[in-house]
Amino acid sequence: MTPPRLPVELILQIVESVIPDSPDALLRRDDPRSRLLIAFTLVCRSTYRVATRLLRKHSASIESSNQLRRMLLSLDGPHYSPDPALSWKSITSLYLAPFGNTLDDLPTARWVNELCHHTADTLRRLVIDMPFSTLDRYDDHLNVRQVLRQGFESLVNLEEFICLSEYPQLSTSEATTDIWALWPNLKRLMLFHVPLADHWLWWNIARLRDLEFVWFMEPKPGVYARCAPDLQKKFTVAVAGCWYTEDVYLMSKWEELDPDECMTFRFFSQGLPDDVGQIRKRWLTRNIENGSLWDLDAASRYMGNGGRAVARGPSREIGGWAPLSRCLPAQRV
After folding, report:
1. For residues 214 and 238, is the Cβ–Cβ distance under 8 A?
2. For 309, which DSSP code?
3. Cross-strand bridge partners of residue 126
4. What is the pLDDT of residues 64-78, one digit of tens each?
5. Element (H, E) at 188
6. Whole-model pTM?
7. Tell me: the pLDDT tens digits for 182-238?
C-alpha cells in the first residue's frame, strides 16, 4: 500500500509556521529555525520556493568575509535561480557582519560595496555589526572607509538601520556627514555609543522627515547645547544604558530645541555595570529575532526601572530612572 501523504498546501503551511508572526523578525544563520528552512529547500520544488522566499526575507545573514565572497560569486553562477523573487538581489532584510577583528580589510570592504549596490533597490532593513573604531580616519591608507561609505550611500530605500556594538564612523576628508543621515526614507534607527553632545546628531535627526523612532544604546555623556532645525514631525527617542542625569537631558534648552513638543523621550536603566553587557545582548538577540525591537513595553520589562515619558522642567528627575546609587539590578531575561 502507498503510505499516506500530506497535501502540499498543509506542508507549505508547516514551512511558513517556522518564522515568528512578526514581519520584522530577523533570524541569524545558526538559528534552528533557519536551519529548518534550509532543510525544507531540499524536500521538493514547492517547499524550495516557499522556504527560500522566507530565508531571503527573515534569515538573510552574512557573518564572514568568505560567506560574503561565495554569495557574490553565486549571483552570476550557472545554477543561480532565474526567479527574481528568490534572488539575493531581492532581499528586504539583511544581517551583515563580514569583518573580523579589524575594519582594515580592503577586499571585504569592496565585497560589501558590491553587495550594497546589488540590493539597493529592495533592501529596507539592515542590521550591521562592524569594528568601525579599529580603523581611524587618518590611518586609512587603503581608503577602506571610503569604499564602505560608497556602498552604504547606495542604499537610498533603506527604512530601518540597526548598528550594533559601535557607532558607524565612516567620515572621510571629502564626506563628513553621518552615513545614516543620507538615507531619506529612514524611519527607525538604533545606534550605540552616540555622542549626545554633538550638535550635528540632532540636526541630522531633525532633517530626516520620515524618522519615527530612535534607539540610543549606551550613549556617550554630554550636554546638548545648540538647537536643531525646526521639527515638523513627532517621534520617539529611547535611551538605554545611561549612568548620569542632568548632563544627558538639559532641561533648560528644550523650549528652544523643541517648542512644539514633537519629541518624546524614554529613558531606561540597565542594572549594575557588570550586568549591562549580558542584559543588552540577550535583549537585543531576542527582540531582533522576534521583530519586537521597537516595542517599548517589552524594553521596560527587560531593562530594569524606567521607560516612562519624560516630563519637562529644570529640576525634574528623568522619569522612572534613578541615579547609579539608587539603581536596582535589571530584571534578567
Report:
1. yes
2. E
3. 94, 161
4. 999 999 888 877 655
5. strand 188-192
6. 0.80
7. 999 999 999 988 887 777 888 888 888 899 999 988 887 665 545 555 667 788 888
